Amino acid sequence: MVIFHIEAIKSCDDVAIIGAGIAGTYAGWRLRNLNKQITVYEYSNRVGGRCYTVKFPDIPDINVELGAMGFTATSHKLRYDTMRELGLSVQKFVLGVAASEDTTVHVRGVHLRYKDLWGTSTLTNYFRMNENQEMFKNYTDVLTTTVPEDAKRFQIKDVDGLQMYKQSSEAQNYIKDTASFLNKGVSASAKVITSPPSHEENEVLTVTTGFSSIPEKLLEEFLRASRRHNIKLNHHLKANKKMRNGYYNLYFERTITRNGRTSIIKNKPLIKKCAKKIILAVNRLSLERLNWKGLHQPNIREYITKAVKDVSAGKLFLVYNFPWWRNSPVYSKYAI
Which GO terms describe its molecular function (predicted)? Predict the structure, then answer.
């Protein structure tokens, strides 16, 4: 007979949530009124994960979004509804879904206006496109999915009628080179959107107080709902093991955050915690590194590694004492 210590079982969390990004804080918020003992564990010293808003000292009224920065009410309905329930205000994201037509871009060694990227002369020079041919928006990724017959008429074709993606990767590369930073998952059959949206319901919005406000507000209401709710920062889940009674032992490494960078503290004993249920609200890389037998099953491992596709991306923010670019001959309303 296996005898479990009553006090040890009582100290177990009903739910342990790993990760204090928007997924983890949302999970805690949804469970906040169930009278459960719940702890959120976070690797760094900051709540929010990929929702990360910072402010420069000289321009405190400007939100600098180092992570998520825009959404639409129709495409992100759950987020929008949650924000309204939290009482967070939104405002129009000035850039819309793409650059303005007079924005200057540098692509393949040539300076062009954004409106010229898809002009007939440009397409003819690059693809031998028919000058009378029109381009259509089609968000079906023709390289990885089966395209319905009625959608094939929207695919980009050359003057001989052959789809561009079947000829080479040239069409894909050109679109990727010229797509705005907000465009995602561009396929060989997609058209770059060259003007801000005209329908109010499709307008790109942002959070007035910054995207970090969403997970911060979710966590605030989660902690306020019960004294049995907790947040543990600078905890890295290294391993977990299922016990005979169905509960889990969780083993954490201590971390330290300096100047925005978090690292594991070496040569420190692991912190042991207990939970009846676990929610892994972390990214793919964290799941791949977690020492848990359940995640190493062949089919589960495949789901994890193929769940998302890595895409290189970056953002650069520059701050100046005065708007020198307004005197530039290539100045536009949006960006250079």
Answer: L-amino-acid oxidase activity
What SS3 state is found at 219?
helix
pLDDT tens by residue, 184-200: 433 333 333 333 334 45
Long-range contacts of 152-156 (CB under 8 A, 24+ apart): 154/189, 155/188, 155/189, 156/127, 156/129, 156/188, 156/189, 156/191
Alpha carbons 151 and 135: distance in angstroms, whole number? 13
Lowest mean pLDDT among 22-26, 46-50, 107-111: 107-111
Ramachandran assignment for 23, one of left (phi > 0), alpha (psi -120 to 50 degrees), beta (any other):
alpha
Q: Crossing angle for the helix pair 213-225 and 77-86, nearest 10 degrees?
A: 60
Give me 290's structure tokens: 């977690």
The two three-digit tokens of residue 128, written as one number:
């031998």
- Specify the 3-state DSSP secondary structure of 251: strand
Helices (H), 129-261: 164-167, 170-178, 213-225
- 257 neighbors 264 (Cβ within 8 angstroms): no
96 alpha-carbon distance from chain centroid: 18
CA distances from 242 to 29, 149, 247, 294 (A): 26, 50, 6, 9
Distance between CA atoms of 156 and 150, rounded to whole angstroms? 14
Alpha carbon of 123 to those of 135, 153, 191: distances in Å?
10, 18, 12
**C-alpha–C-alpha distance, residues 212 and 178, integer Å:** 30
- pTM, rounded to two decimals: 0.67
- Looking only at Cα atoms, what is the longest distance across the chain? 83
Flag whether pLDDT at 4 surpasses 50.
no
- SS3 percent helix, strand, coil of the chain, rounded to 5, is 25, 20, 50
Question: What is the distance between the alpha carbons of residues 281 and 286, in angstroms, rounded to a whole number?
Answer: 10
Indicate whether 49 pLDDT > 80: yes
